[in-house]
Amino acid sequence: MRLTDHIRRQLRKRLTGEADVVLVDRVPEIERAFEGVEELGLYLHLPFCRRICPYCPYNKTLYRVGLADGYAEAVIREIDLYASAVGDRPITSFYVGGGTPTVMLDHGLDRILRHVRASFRMKCAVHMESHPTDLTDEALAALLDMGVEHLSVGVEALQDHHLRALGRPYTADEVRATVARTVARGFRCVNVDMMFALPEQTVDEVVHTGRALVDAGVDQVAAYPLFDFPYTPWTRVTRSRTGGPAAVFTRRKMLKALEHVFYGAGFRRTSVWAFTRAGVSPYCSVTVPLYLGIGASGGSYLRDVFFLNTFDVGAYIESLERGRLPVALSVKLSRKMQMAGWLYWRMYGVRFRKRAFLERFGTAFDAIYGREARSLGRLGLLRDDGTEITLTDAGAYWLHVVQDIFSLDAVGKLWGTAMTTPWPRRVVV
Ligand SMILES: C[S@@+](CC[C@H](N)C(=O)[O-])C[C@H]1O[C@@H](n2cnc3c(N)ncnc32)[C@H](O)[C@@H]1O
Ligand code: SF4
User: Fold this and answer.
1) Which residue, 183, 252, 281, 201, is CA-closest to 209?
2) How far apart, in Å, are the Cα atoms of 102 and each of 78, 140, 176, 249?
3) Are 267 and 215 within 8 A, CB to CB?
4) pLDDT per residue over 31-84, tens digit each?
5) Ligand 1, from 193, 272, 411: best to mutate by most atoms within 8 Å of Cβ?
6) Confidence of residue 11 (pLDDT cuts 50, 70, 90)
7) Most-buried pick from 55, 124, 296, 299 (CB within 10 A)?
């Protein structure tokens, strides 16, 4: 076993009580899984893209009209299979991710959203990912008509040579114009995704991109360092240029420069990677405590169980045609694991009330994590004012390093297997 694997297992054991997490090919008992769930988030995965980016770790496949129509039908069937178990529990967040949801604008998106509203008690706005090349004036109007109030645009960089290296099909000038048109439409929040720590990228280029986005009037910027996922073609080609220990310092330097730009413009940090304009309700994806995931590769977390749909679009559609839930893997989570998972995601959102932990687990936060919180406080990684915990900028950065060590490795193993095997028997992460 490699030294890093050993350290990872030991640390995980300390935090969660388990050295390994084992997912098996069991479909959980759905009515039981919802017991004690008072409200939940909804995630919908739409896996189609017009072309595939070499660095992208997400579950996606090339867009074909016929396949997208069949997929929309399958999503509607999956919603029907959950409708009675969800009942009238309020859905307090709804995130449509991908892939590229906007490629389905003319093929099923509207129908799916209407079916979601007819089947569940929706108490929230729609948050959706989009690709710049889909955002024509008609598309933006259609998205607003469908009730999409929070829109994210995958811009990635504002220098032509980086866009070319990433294989993005637009120029910096084109995407700048798209951002300007999108901002002018009156969405409640326009988020832009950008990536940094790209090969041969300079700090000046990163700062220029961040500043240009602020000046363009976007409400939020999510700035991710380019992560290496072992199963993407990009990593196989460029590992020596983007990975390695030097990347830790490059990322830190670039993130600090971005913090300077965003804080200077009055933005606040709303997650480890996202900065939001003052007074705007953030565009957000992953920070809901309990959620149901619909679509190929949709993941669900309901108190003591996590389950994951098959990643294979054909297998997903076929399973639903037979009236079967497309769940491929599940794992029952011990109380200690639930607490560790809760803490990780609340920290990812950079601030949380300690009372929320008490409400969820019936135990005081300090009784479980008080010692760790005090140690992290002494290191300057978080602030605890007695009622609320806030991650500092240094804390957000080190959480990213921990994420790189733990969750990206786990995601790499789990997704790497799920992407090649529609129905894996067992995955150990
Ligand atoms: C699903 S995509 C966004 C929507 C659309 N598919 C697009 O590409 O424009 C989600 C975002 O994840 C980020 N991303 C993708 N691959 C990444 C990687 N290897 N490392 C870091 N961020 C990545 C990009 O910023 C991308 O915009
Ligand atoms: S980055 Fe976006 S467009 Fe590119 S393959 Fe991934 S999901 Fe598709």
Assistant:
1) 201
2) 20, 10, 19, 36
3) no
4) 999 999 999 999 999 999 999 999 999 999 999 999 999 999 999 999 999 999
5) 193
6) low
7) 296
59 phi, psi to nearest 5 deg: -80, 115
User: Quick check: CB of 283 below 6 Å from ligand 1?
Assistant: no
Q: How far apart are CA 76 and CA 20, in angstroms?
A: 35
Contact predicate 182/220, CB 8 Å: no
User: Residue 189 in contact with residue 219, Cβ under 8 Å?
Assistant: yes
Rounded distance between C-alpha atoms, residue 8 and residue 12, angstroms: 6
Please determine, looking at this structure, whether the domain spanning 26-277 carries the CATH number 3.80.30.20.
Answer: yes
**Rounded to an integer, what distance in angstroms lies between the CA atom of residue 326 and that of residue 74?**
10
Q: Are 49 and 60 within 8 A, CB to CB? A: yes
What value does the CA radius of gyration of the chain take, rounded to a whole number of Å?
Answer: 21
pTM, full prediction: 0.93
Per domain, the residue ranges of the chain are: 26-277
Using a 6 Å cutoff on CB, does residue 58 contact ligand 1?
yes
For ligand 1, atom 6: residue with the closest CA:
100
Write out residues with Cβ below 6 Å of ligand 2: 49, 52-53, 56, 58, 60, 98-100, 131, 154
383, exposed or middle or buried, with CB in 10 Å at 0-12, 13-18, 19+? middle
